[in-house]
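PT: before anyone asks, these are the final sequences, not the draft ones from last week. 230 residues across everything. Please model them as a single complex and drop the result in this thread when it's through.
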Amino acid sequence: DTGVSQDPRHKITKRGQNVTFRCDPISEHNRLYWYRQTLGQGPEFLTYFQNEAQLEKSRLLSDRFSAERPKGSFSTLEIQRTEQGDSAMYLCASSLLGGGDSYEQYFGPGTRLTVT
Amino acid sequence: TQLLEQSPQFLSIQEGENLTVYCNSSSVFSSLQWYRQEPGEGPVLLVTVVTGGEVKKLKRLTFQFGDARKDSSLHITAAQPGDTGLYLCAGAVARGGSNYKLTFGKGTLLTVNP
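LR: through. Structure below.
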């Protein structure tokens, strides 16, 4: 069983450019979460999906951010018109709703975004 | 807003010493997870505690969930350099019987010197 994977692992972009990140959850997991982590802080919740439905978005997720999970499998997170304040580690996690360990979220390695 | 406060924020100890990390909140959580994170990597789940007063052991690590499910502690016995990392606690509030978003503390950065 492979874990959560994220691509790319690192992204350097210039301010104003658009970027897109991909997350592949653990295969049988039906819930997928996106978090953002800045230096010296714990991860902060951005949004989550149950299957293909996006059930909640944090107020941290401005209208420049959009996330999709079109077939209930992988997910993408797009940031348009990036700003320097978007520089952070973007983490994806997945969990199995209804399983015995449904409390547990498993994280991917993250995508480190640097906006110059 | 649910907040989790971790203490201490930084901890530097010698190999073989014992240590305890605390995670406190004024909110009640349905479950609490402890993660360990290495630089440039995602958090790795260590344990989940669900029941108030629950104690779980993972080799030299002992995790306890407070009776009121508002706080937790992580105790490491005879720390080793391989224990070095950022320890994060995260609380979850279940809605409709299922896990929801995690609220994280800022973490405790542990350094174990040989």
